[in-house]
Amino acid sequence: MKRFSMSLAAIAALGLSALPAFADQIPLERLSGYLNGLKTAQANFTQISDDGTIMTGQLQLKRPWKIRFEYDQDETLVLAESRSVAIFDPRGNPQPETYPLSKTPLKLILDRSIDLAKANMVVGHTHDGTSTSILAQDPEHPEYGTLELVFTDNPVQLRQWVVRDEVGTATTVVLGELDGSVSLRNSVFSIRAEKERRSR
């Protein structure tokens, strides 16, 4: 896929970023506290792939180590559970592609404890007048790629992230309003249960 590049202005044109008025840069300590407090969450999302393909769906997460991307367009499903990531294709193949979560940048927000001030974790911390962005990497394995997170303030909320893998391929996820009050069963993230369902 071609290297993706899309400005926040273009995303706003799609109606995907309703950013508030001017706000100060959010310190890393507050961002760490916000992410550590985000035990469960649910939101609609829009995903922009490296080649410009746009897909929508619903995101659910339960820290630590659990996340679910369910897409509207087909039966593609991405699950993370117990440090593994499984990608189920739309043809209903019961055997997904699997990867260690530790080798993906999303590990940085799904870990049990998040400390953005950890040495060499955050390699960029910027502010554009309305939102604060950080560029993070695994300090022990920067070759696994980077995760750019975009936050707004009052109250702090995660609005968007950009995952760049080890070869530089970028995937942008723009979030709707995050509902952090939901109760999510562990079975929602079960890779085994999804394999069994697709095998029937």
Task: For this entry, give a set of tags.
200 residues, eleven-stranded antiparallel beta sheet, 14% helix
Tell me briefly what this model is.
The protein contains four helices and eleven strands, in the order ααββββββαβββββα.
Write structural notes for this entry.
There is one protein chain. The protein is of the alpha+beta class. 14% of the residues lie in helices and 36% in strands. It has four helices and eleven strands, in the order ααββββββαβββββα. The chain has helices at 8-13, 28-37, 107-110, 191-199; strands at 40-48, 54-62, 66-71, 77-81, 84-88, 97-100, 122-127, 132-137, 146-152, 157-164, 170-175. An eleven-stranded antiparallel β-sheet has the order 6-5-4-3-2-1-11-10-9-8-7, covered by helices on one side. The protein is globular.
First and last CA, distance: 34 Å
Instruction: Tell me what portion of residues adopts beta-strand conformation.
Output: 35-45%
Count the strands? Answer: 11
Largest sheet: 11 strands, antiparallel
| Helix-strand string | HHEEEEEEHEEEEEH
| Rg from alpha-carbon coordinates | 16 Å
Kindly name the structural category.
Answer: alpha+beta
Number of helices: 4
Global shape: globular
Please give the structural blueprint.
Blueprint: H1 8-13, H2 28-37, E1 40-48, E2 54-62, E3 66-71, E4 77-81, E5 84-88, E6 97-100, H3 107-110, E7 122-127, E8 132-137, E9 146-152, E10 157-164, E11 170-175, H4 191-199
Antiparallel strand pairs: 1-2, 1-11, 2-3, 3-4, 4-5, 5-6, 7-8, 8-9, 9-10, 10-11
